[in-house]
Automatic annotation (TrEMBL):
Membrane-traversing stretches: 6-26
Domain DUF2134 residue range list: 41-134
UniProt cross-references to InterPro entries, sorted A to Z: DUF2134_membrane
Keyword Membrane in record: yes
Protein's name according to its UniProt entry: DUF2134 domain-containing protein
Record-linked Pfam families: Tad_C
Keyword Transmembrane helix appears in the UniProt entry: yes
Keywords tagged on the record: Membrane, Transmembrane, Transmembrane helix
Lineage: Bacteria, Pseudomonadati, Pseudomonadota, Betaproteobacteria, Burkholderiales
Length: 685
């Protein structure tokens, strides 16, 4: 019986000890959970220079969660600075107690629990110790800036540029492309899909270094749809990649994810205090794709077939476009910036045909569309709360919707000339590096060029900047997560085109003619051209006949007179009547020899050459100018041809470019806030 009783008693003691151990483990777990919650509550309420609110919040939270008989005191709550930067001295838990500005709360509890068997040796005075460290992540945001960059319809500077060359991103992959409009991607998830998951303790410097790499556009597009849990769209995006490569005629498109320098990249330099907030930022997948296409195709020129035209038979226009600054997505705290997709269009107007030896125009026009940036100014402030109590961020937008220049864009030494390169490939590479490699080429690499030369008597050798649709001063917008604001002005494109043409006209027509007269051969060429033009159809402004008859020549001579009068008047070089214009319509018709063109007289004969000689007689004369001096009639006529040519540039080139082709309607810039982190605390120990 004694043995049985001893065995039973031993079993009872073992059971009680096991029960007590289980109770202690349970109690420690409950205390740890309560400490974790108290630390988080304290961190969410912490002030940079005061621990009072954090302590009160931690104690209040613990009172709701601690087991009965336990309570948290002010002595258990310590505020300090948590900084995991490995470059700084390593402290226990990376925590510096009492160091300001506070960003973390340490809750440390040491308590004596009630015991079932306090008499067991070693059980007396047993204590349970728990610690929890929670840190407040500094407020951060992710946003993008673009000209209609965020619209699924493709009504964007970048989207319209690609449409202009036949690549419509809206319809290329119907399900995949539009299906990504509402898919959210995190940089952390994107990196993992690319095979380089970021470590949980990675620093901001380490994250920027990890992003400082390039991947193919195909890899990135597939990673985006996988990270957005849309793996079924991977195959569809292969079609998108193939279409981009085919249209842009490149073998491989690479995308720089991030940059430690100023190299164009998908993400600008991240400046959050902790890497976790950047890794978890929510970004629209559609924006990522369009920005990636912009980065991949940057500094490559693309022909715009619709603008390669002939104007009035006097000049040829060629046009190329390309991205000189791709759109970027910014992630970080106050001061981070994001840029629009800055599209440069290079238009070259050069005279052609018979008159090109008399009227020489070499007009290079560079237009940068939507050159703007957004800067994060404030976030997570009480005065930024919306009416419904949601946190918001404030972003300033600055820049110009349209800017550019007229003149020669050269290298820094002003010596590079792409025409010296042999072969189409070498010329294209030179052209791309010269015109499309610098976002500020008009500011830093603009030099003078002979823009116009009329008979060697009227020359314009200069250059000029162009700035239209400017944002006169930074515009501030306040946004909540997912919201988009549009800034700009109400200046219509028609007014902008008029201003551009006016700038060009002032350059070309603003010079005063030098003294002198054109050569006889120049006047002969001009007179012949005017006579030939006079026989064009009525629809083209001619007399509508070319027959070798007196009646037809009379009609043509009347038409030639109108051409000379109108062009001379448009030149702005003359005042009053054109000297000698009356001779063209019978002022000498009563003479015995006739006029040699449309009137035979008694002894003379008529011919086309006689008409040309009659025109030469008028063109060889000089008339009074507005300054009181005399100007060659031939010079005035040729200069007058510039006005309809400039009007044609505005109507046939600039208006389609700005309004129809590239979708710049009223100079609108969109700013979108993708994510915002305020009062975001996390357990770090």
């Amino acid at each position: 019986m004694v043995i049985n009783a001893a065995i039973a008693l031993a079993l009872i003691v073992i059971t009680l000890i096991g029960t007590e151990l289980g109770y202690l483990f349970y109690l420690k777990r409950e205390l740890q959970k309560s400490a974790d919650l108290a630390a988080l509550a304290g961190a969410q309420s912490i002030a940079p220079a005061s621990c009072a609110s954090a302590t009160s919040a931690a104690i209040a939270n613990a009172a709701q969660n601690l087991p009965s008989g336990f309570q948290l005191t002010a002595a258990d709550v310590i505020c300090g600075r948590w900084d995991p930067d490995p470059a700084k001295p390593v402290l226990p838990k990376h925590f510096s107690p009492g160091t300001q500005p506070f960003n973390s709360v340490l809750v440390s509890m040491r308590r004596t629990p009630p015991l079932l068997l306090p008499q067991i040796p070693g059980n007396a005075g047993r204590q349970i110790t728990v610690e929890a460290l929670a840190a407040m992540a500094d407020p951060s945001a992710a946003f993008s800036v673009g000209s209609r960059l965020l619209r699924v319809s493709g009504d964007s500077t970048l989207g319209a540029l690609l449409k202009a060359i036949g690549l419509n991103l809206d319809n290329t992959v119907v399900a995949g492309y539009e299906g990504l409009a509402n898919v959210k991607i995190t940089p952390g998830g994107l990196l993992c899909q690319l095979g380089t998951c970021a470590a949980s303790d990675i620093t901001v410097a380490g994250l920027n270094a990890l992003l400082d790499t390039s991947v193919s556009l195909g890899q990135l597009l597939d990673a985006v749809v996988k990270a957005g849990s849309r793996g079924d769209l991977v195959g569809a995006n292969a079609t998108l990649v193939s279409a981009i490569k085919a249209k842009l005629n490149v073998d491989q498109l690479n995308v720089k994810l991030g940059s430690l320098t100023s190299t164009p990249s998908l993400f600008t330099l991240i400046n959050t205090p902790g890497a976790s907030s950047a890794l978890d930022a929510q970004i629209n997948a559609l924006d990522l794709i369009q920005a990636a296409v912009g980065v991949a195709t940057g500094s490559r020129s693309i022909d715009i077939p619709g603008l390669n035209v002939s104007l009035l038979g006097l000049a040829n226009v060629t046009a190329k476009a390309g991205l000189v600054e791709p759109p970027s997505i910014a992630i970080g705290t106050k001061g981070i910036t994001a840029y629009t997709a800055q599209v440069r269009t290079f238009i070259h107007v050069k005279t052609s045909g018979v008159l090109s030896n008399l009227l020489k125009i070499n007009l290079p026009i560079a237009l940068d569309l939507v050159a703007a940036k957004g800067t994060l100014q404030e976030l997570c402030k009480p005065d930024l709360l919306s009416a419904s109590g949601e946190q918001q961020a404030q972003i300033s937008v600055d820049g110009a919707i349209l800017k550019g220049c007229i003149g020669k864009i050269s290298n820094s030494a002003g010596t590079q000339d792409c025409s010296l390169s042999t072969g189409d490939a070498r010329y294209q590479a030179c052209f791309d590096s010269l015109i499309f490699s610098k976002k500020d080429a008009c500011e830093q690499n603009l030099s003078s060029l002979e823009l116009i030369n009329v008979l060697g008597l009227l020359k314009t050798t200069t250059s000029a900047p162009i700035k239209a649709l400017p944002i006169e001063q930074p515009t501030m917008v306040t946004l909540g997560v997912g919201q988009t604001a549009t800034v700009g002005n109400d200046l219509a494109i028609g007014t902008t085109v008029t201003n551009l043409v006016s700038t060009i006209a002032n350059l070309l027509l603003g010079s005063k003619p030098s003294n002198g007269a054109p050569s006889s051969s120049d006047v002969t060429t001009l007179a012949t051209q005017i006579w030939n033009d006079s026989g064009k159809s009525l629809a083209d402004g001619g007399a509508g006949c070319t027959a070798d008859t007196t009646a037809c020549r009379a009609k043509r001579l009347s038409n030639a007179k109108l051409q000379i009068e109108n062009n001379a008047a448009q030149s702005g070089l003359l005042s009053g009547l054109l000297n000698g214009i009356g001779d063209l319509l019978g002022a000498v018709g009563g003479l015995v020899g006739g006029d040699g063109c449309s009137y035979t007289g008694l002894l003379g004969s008529t011919s086309n050459q006689g008409c040309i000689d009659l025109l030469k007689g008028t063109l060889n004369k000089s008339s009074g100018s507005g300054s009181g001096s005399v100007v060659s009639n031939a010079l005035a006529v040729l200069t007058g041809l510039l006005q309809p040519l400039l009007d044609a540039i505005g109507k046939s080139v600039l208006t389609p470019l700005l309004q129809s082709l590239l979708g710049i309607h009223l100079g609108e810039i969109d700013v979108k806030l993708h994510s915002l982190r305020c009062n975001d605390a996390q357990l770090v120990y």
